[in-house]
Amino acid sequence: MKRKLTFQQYIAVASMLFGLFFGAGNLIFPVSMGQMAGRRVWPAFFGFLITGVGLPLLGVAALGMSRCNGLAEMSQRIGKKYGTFFTCALYLTIGPFFAIPRCATVPFAVGIEPILGKGSSDALPLAVFSLLFFLAVLWFSLRPGKILTWIGKVLNPIFLAALGLLVITALLRPMGDIGSIAPQAGYASHAFSQGFLEGYNTMDALAGLAFGIIVVNVIKSLGVENSGDVAKCTVKAGLFSTILMAVIYLLVTIIGTQSRGMYEASSNGGEALLLIASHYYGRAGAFILAFTVTFACLKTSIGLITSCSETFCAMFPRTLNYKKWAVLFCALSLLIANLGLNSIIAYSLPVLMFLYPLAITLIFLSLAGKFFADDKKVYISVTACTIFAAALDFLNALPKGIKNLLHLKPLLAGVSRYLPLFEQGMGWVCPALLGLAIGICLHARKKQSLPS
C-alpha cells in the first residue's frame, strides 16, 4: 500500500489545486484592492491573505482531516437537512449561479471586448464568446478522470507563463512609489477589514470546501489508500498551492498599487488589468491579457463544473447522472453569464456575506472537533448564532435600491448600534463566539452527566 506521494506527484496535485482555485476573481480583486488601498496596501493585503489564502487552505485541510466523503457529510454534523441546504447553496454559489458565469464574463470584459472595440456592447458578442467558452468547459468536464492532466499539467503552466510575462514587466518598470499613493474609500480608515472582505469575492474559502474532495480522490487514484495518509497528502498539497497563490496575490496587488502612480483608480479590477497591460504592451497588451484571463477562467470553470456535477450526482442519485448534471450546469451558467459581469458581481456579494461566516465556522469546528469530541451540540450552537448574524450581513450587503424597497434602513441602523463589527461587514464574529461558549458549556455539562 502506497503511503505518500513522490515530490513530482505533490507538485502535480498542488498545481491542479492552484489551477482549480485561481480564476476570475483571483486576478481582478487583488489588483483593484491594490489601487484603492494605496500606501495602506500592507494591512489590506494581510486581511485579504486571511480570507483569500488562509481560509481556502484550512477548508481543504478540514475536509482532508475530517475524513468525510465531501462537504455534504461534513456539514451534516449540524443536521441532515442543514447539510443538504448548505451544500446545495455553496455549490450553486461557486457554480452555475455566480462563480462559473463570472468566469466567462471576466475574460470577455477585460480581454475580448476591448479588442472588438466600439459596438462590442451588443449582446451578440458576449453570447457567442460564452457559448464557445462553455462548449470548451463541457468538453473537458465530461472527462473528469483527466482533470489532473488537463489542469495540473497543461492549462495551469500555460496560464502561469502568460501571467508571469505581464507581472515581471510591471515589477521591473514600476509606474509609481507605493508610499506616495493615497488610499481611497474605506481603505483610509479600515484597510484590514476592507481587505478581509475583499477576499470573500474570490469565493476561495467556499471553493476549498468544494475542491477538497477532488484532491482527496486524485490522491487516492495515485495509490494512497490509508485515510490518515490521504489527509496528510491533502494538507501538504494544499499548502504548496496556497503558497503559490499568496505569492501571485502579492505581486498582482503591488502592480495594482503602483499603477496609481500614473493613472486614477479604475472602476473595477478588470479595467485596471487592461490599463496595466496596455501601458506596457500597447494594443498587444489586450491580447496578452485576453489569453491570460481566458486560461485562468477556463481551468477554474472545469473544476467547478466537475465538482458540482459529482456532488449533485452523489446527493441525488435517483435524478440525473454525472454527464447530464454537467450539461445542465453548463447551460445554466451560459444563461446567467449573459446577464453581464456587473449584475453578477452586484448580486453575488450579499450571498457571499451570508455563506462565508457559515463556511468559516464549519471549517474551524471541523479542525478543532477533537477538543469537544465533535459534539453535535457545539456545531448546532455556533451555527445557530452565526446564521442569524449572517442573515443581517446579507441584508446589509443588498444593493441600495433593494434595501430602500424593503425599508431596511431603520433595522440596519439599529443593528449597527448594538452589534459589534457590523459596519465592517463582520457582525457574525461576536455571535459565533457566543455560540461557541454556549456549545462548550453544554458539552462540559454533558460530560459531567455521564457515568464514570
TrEMBL record:
Keywords: Amino-acid transport, Cell membrane, Membrane, Transmembrane, Transmembrane helix, Transport. It is a multi-pass membrane protein. It holds the Pfam family Branch_AA_trans. GO terms for cellular component: plasma membrane. GO terms for molecular function: L-isoleucine transmembrane transporter activity; L-leucine transmembrane transporter activity; L-valine transmembrane transporter activity. It is found in: Cell membrane. Its main location: membrane. The chain crosses the membrane at residues 7-29, 41-64, 85-111, 123-142, 154-172, 205-223, 235-256, 284-305, 325-347, 353-373, 378-398, 425-444. PANTHER family: BRANCHED-CHAIN AMINO ACID PERMEASE BRNQ, BRANCHED-CHAIN AMINO ACID TRANSPORT SYSTEM 2 CARRIER PROTEIN. This is Branched-chain amino acid transport system carrier protein.
